Amino acid sequence: MAAPSARPLALVTGGWRRIGAAIARALAVEGWDLALHAHNAATFDRSFAGELAQLGAAVYPLAADLADAVAVMRLPAEAMALAGCAPTLLINCAALFREDTAATVTAAMLDEHLAVNLTAPVLLTRALADLAANQLSGDDAAVVHILDQRVLNPVPDQLSYTLSKQALHAAVRTLARSLAPRVRVNAVAPGLTLPTPDYSEEQWLRLTALMPLERLACPDDITEAVVFLSKARAITGQTIFVDGGAHLESFARDFVYLET
Hints:
Layout: E1 9-13, H1 18-29, E2 33-38, H2 46-54, E3 59-63, H3 69-83, E4 89-92, H4 107-135, E5 141-146, H5 159-179, E6 183-190, H6 201-210, H7 219-231, E7 239-242
Parallel strand pairs: 1-2, 1-4, 2-3, 4-5, 5-6, 6-7
């Protein structure tokens, strides 16, 4: 076990890329050390870890298949073993996203999405709460789950993914009530934020114009909400939608099929 740092420790699932990496970077600036999870060790990024170290953060890499409940339950304790202190902040950013619809959904597809997008976050929250009960003194612990704006106005695409995120959205309030006062549980629900190769530049601009605010969120918008919730000690059971207002509208399809 490492010597404890003066900086608190945050555990970020999916913390090596895209939004997870942006969150890790913002937390490093805020004074956190980081236990960064990836599905497997091959995706650890030494250059990114070096960047975080330049910001003052110690970085502890963790690998686990989030469909493996036993591995999931071990993650917070593994982070503590590496860092010498228990994590007091959990950011659940990792998620499984695959295509299916009501016409193609299978039990296997549902089980796969629920394991990663619901069961793993709930078990991680429980494991953090167990450490909070046994290891922490003084400050509380906090959990921020990354959701999706579609939990309020779902589309018919990616059915298993959507159902799993809706279930996690419902779990936020239940977990918050169950784990108070020692653990705060909140969520951030982004909309379109970072383009993938599925989108053309022109389509991205047209989708931007569809939003009530006529803008899409950028990674900094997401990280600002996460950092706020990490420090908001009188807030629990809340979901902040960071989506340009997308959750106020009802779209006929997933965004990738619109404005093509």
